[in-house]
Write a structure and sequence with these properties.
alpha/beta; UDP-N-acetylmuramoyl-L-alanine:D-glutamate ligase; six-stranded parallel sheet; 15 strands; globular
């Protein structure tokens, strides 16, 4: 069983995990500069750009975290026949084996943030969010099946939905069925459009806002009202028929419900943090949760380590992936150790 204790050093329960990520990948582009004047043709500032950078975003950030944590990663996604798609392939190839299906009718999602003197001025989005067609869905499913039927099938599959068109109800159910046929667990980080379509998964991880909006609650629940929160969690679990439901709640920690494993509405409190930036924390949490699940960890241990990793990220400015070394250092610092015993 998996357990926590307080020995002299901390360790994590995985060694060389293989993970497949499917979902919406994108380019996060940044332009830094400073404002020196106002535009003569409109009451807007003129930013003189001094630096540019492109990074993987969306499901790509989950890939980045998994790579930093020591996993071997495959990623399956759809991009446009454009420079951004080619750039994304190059960026992902440094950390994973990318299978990027090219759809000439789509634009690769690019989110450009313009930052002046440390302040976020504006974000410009270029994207196509219509659902991919059936031909692309078949290619995506077949790409996963090739991995599942191979000699090095993934230990866990992560479905990372950003509502950018990769997932449909049919593709979701086909992926889940294929994974379970090959005894591979599925974890999900949802968005709203297909929130209730991910039925039968092994771990479903919404945040508190997504829980409220996904259930369409007229009166949003709060972790400060435990009975209402528990009722919402049970309602969602009944609709999804999932094995484990983990809700991230920011400064309130994590709510874990896995009744089939004897865990009923466990609240893992957040560790005290000097929060600098919450960007990317959810991607870090799902990456760590996937590795913990694939390693056979118990629900409370899974939630504790994932919560710890998300908190570590929040203390850093920008989208920063957690490394295995950093997470083990955190476990040591907080006098926690994770071990898996036969």
């Amino acid at each position: 069983m998996a357990s926590f204790s307080t020995p002299s050093e901390a360790s994590l329960p995985w060694s060389n995990p293989r993970v497949c990520v499917l979902g919406d990948v994108m380019v996060d582009a940044y332009m830094w500069g400073s404002v020196s004047r106002m535009s003569p043709v409109a009451p807007v500032p003129v930013v003189e750009v001094t630096q540019r950078e492109q990074r993987v975003g969306g499901a790509g950030n989950v890939v980045k975290n998994l790579h930093a944590l020591g996993a071997t990663v495959d990623v399956i996604a759809v991009v446009g026949e454009d420079e951004a798609g080619r750039m994304l392939h190059g960026l992902l190839a440094t950390m994973a084996k990318p299978t990027l299906l090219v759809d000439p009718s789509r634009r690769t999602t690019v989110k450009t943030r313009i930052i002046s003197d440390g302040q976020h001025v504006v974000r410009v989005d270029e994207e196509t969010t219509d659902s991919i067609d059936e031909a692309m869905q078949s290619l995506a499913r077949n790409s996963l099946l090739t991995l599942l039927q191979g000699n090095d099938k993934p230990d866990v599959v992560v479905l990372e939905d950003y509502d950018k068109g990769f997932f449909s109800q049919g593709l979701i159910q086909a992926i889940i069925a294929d994974c379970h046929t090959h005894d591979v667990p599925v974890v999900v980080d949802p968005k709203l459009k297909h929130f209730l379509d991910f039925t039968g998964v092994d771990l479903f991880k919404p945040n508190l806002k997504e829980l409220n909006e996904g259930l369409g609650l007229q009166h949003p629940v709060s972790p400060l009202d435990a009975p209402a929160m528990a009722a919402a969690v049970e309602s969602l679990m009944a609709q999804l028929r999932c094995d484990r439901l983990m809700v991230t709640m920011g400064e309130h920690g994590v709510w874990m419900h896995a009744p089939s494993e004897g865990v009923n509405h466990a609240v893992i409190p957040a560790f005290p943090r000097d929060v600098a930036d919450v960007s990317g924390a959810g991607d870090t949490v799902i990456a760590v949760a996937a590795l913990m699940l694939a390693s056979g960890s118990k629900p409370k241990d899974l939630a504790t380590v994932a919560n710890l990793a998300g908190g570590w990220v929040c203390e850093r400015v920008g989208v920063v992936p957690v490394t295995r070394e950093a997470l083990e250092s955190e476990l040591q610092r907080l006098k926690l150790q994770h071990t898996v015993k036969p």
